Structure formats: structure tokens, C-alpha cells
Amino acid sequence: MLANLKLSQFLFLDIETVPEVYQLDKLPKIKQKLFEKKMQYRLKEGQITADLYEQAGIWAEFGKIIVISVGFFVKDDGSEFRLKSFASDNEVKILEDFAKLLNTKYFQRNDLKLCAHNGKEFDFPYIARRMVINNVKIPKQLSVFGKKPWETPFCDTMELWRFGDYKHYTSLELLTNILGIPSPKSDIAGSDVARVYYEEKDLPRIKKYCENDVLAIAQIMLRYIGKDLIKNEQIVRNKS
Predict the structure, then answer these.
(1) Is residue 52 part of a domain?
(2) Is position 39 within any domain?
(3) Is residue 36 part of a domain?
(4) How far apart are CA 138 and CA 131, in angstroms?
(5) How crowded is residue 202: how many other Cβ atoms within 10 Å of its Cβ?
(6) What pLDDT is attached to residue 240?
(7) What confidence tens digit (pLDDT) does each residue in 171-219 have?
(8) pLDDT at 239 over 80
(9) Pick from 222, 113, 224, 214: which is nearest to 161 by CA?
(10) Cβ atoms < 10 Å from Cβ of 155
């Protein structure tokens, strides 16, 4: 089935998220209590809620998006791969700019596939939830209410690796390693993003990290369909 898909059908994407504030005690009191309720079943013996707050960025109710990176092949021969990022301290701007991209004629095509690693369980619903929270209209590609799973334009490189095994989780870092793809985690890892954002205030570094993840996802898809990997000279990075 994958062999029948054209490379230009895919819009590869990845997001970077952080807690909406750096420390639990900076949240409004009511939201602190709500976070405690959400975490009560995750606490291990000897832990307190604050110990889990560094994970707040993975929950759309307590986190925010600071980068959305996308990549796509201009032609089906794979000769040019373009990378573009939406990175800002203003989450609404990120979401609006990403929605604007999806609403352009090029990405309105009926055969478009949004592709991410673990995207069905994280990236796609996270973006949609943050759009609702921020009153940003959800583009049709992310509006899946009432659709059957096979009717959604989603492609998930982790799901493809499962080969029907629904209990299997494989990280992007592990999958790139076993498939002989350069690691996207050579600088920082996901656990470093909040620190780099709040303490070092280095959003460009996080943007580059996110773009490397998108490139890795595209490389994995190329391995799945038996095509050559992307070479450095084929990559065009948008400077915005």
C-alpha cells in the first residue's frame, strides 16, 4: 500500500511543547489543584505532584506549543525536501500560521497525508486541542470528528512499525538507529526542551532540533517504501 503513495502526498511534521509555566507554583491555584487531580494516579511512592510537573508539557491542558516544524518533498522523485518551522513565544501565532499553511491550495489536496512519529496519539490531537483552547479554527485536515480511522489523512511512522502489534512502542531515536538513519537527538533530547526554552531562552536551538526530527521521520518513511535516503544537498531550509 505504501508503495502506491507519492512522496509529494506527505506533509511530515513534529511539534515541541513545554509546560505553560516553568514551575507548578506559578500556575493559578485552581489549575494547580486540577493538575494534582490529573496526576494523582501517576504518583509513585514518595513522590509529590511537583515531581511530575516537568511532564506537564505533554498534556495539552497544561502545556503549550513552541515549535511546529514541517517538511515535504517538492517532487515525487524526492530530489528536493523543504523544511519550514513556526517557532514563537506566541502560541496563537504558531497555530494560526500553521493553519494558514494547511489552508493553502498546495496542501488542500484530497490525497494529502499528515505524517508524524506517534502522531496519532500525540502531535495531531495536541495541535487540535491547543487550537480549540486558543480559539483557532481547526483546518479540515485535523478535524476528524465523525470520521472512521481509515478516512483520516493521518500517517504514523510508529504505527507502521507496529505491524499490527498495538502494544509496541518504539521511540524515534531507536527506530532511526536500527534503520541506519542519522540520529535526530545529537544535540538535545525531548527532556531538555523545557530547560532550554525557559532557562537558556534558546528557541532557535529547539527549532533546529524539531526540524531534525521531521527530517528523521521523512527518512524512516523512505526506508519503509524502499527509496534512497535524503542527502544534505537535497534539503532546503526555510530561513523564517
Answers:
(1) no
(2) no
(3) no
(4) 6
(5) 14
(6) 58
(7) 999 999 999 998 887 788 888 999 999 999 999 999 999 999 999 999 9
(8) no
(9) 224
(10) 23
122, 114 contact by CB (below 8 A): no
**CATH code, domain with 107:** 3.30.420.10
The rounded distance, in Å, linking the Cα atoms of 45 and 48 is: 9
Report the alpha-carbon angle 227-78-226, nearest 5. Answer: 10
Q: How far apart are CA 110 and CA 107, in angstroms?
A: 8
pLDDT above 80 (res 2): no
- For the stretch 116-151, pLDDT in tens is 999 999 999 999 999 999 999 999 999 988 888 777
DSSP code per residue over 127-162: HHHHHHHTT-PPPTTT--TT--GGGS-EEEHHHHHH
Q: What is the pLDDT of residue 1?
A: 58
Is 57 inside a domain boundary? no
Range of the domain at 212: 2-20+62-237
Domain count, the chain: 1
| Sheet strands side by side (includes 235-237) | 154-156, 113-116, 10-19, 63-73, 81-87, 235-237
